[in-house]
């Protein structure tokens, strides 16, 4: 079990938490039925996806 601890972000706002789950198989091509937490919207820390 993983505990998620919410802390204040450096700018004084509440730290964001993942709000959806994604398939490891669909996202990374790994032969697994596992799902992992993810963010539904990117922010300034997320690079643009390179589809190549």
From TrEMBL:
InterPro entries: CobS_N_dom. Residues 15-46 form the Cobaltochelatase subunit CobS N-terminal domain. This is Cobaltochelatase subunit CobS N-terminal domain-containing protein. It comes from marine metagenome.
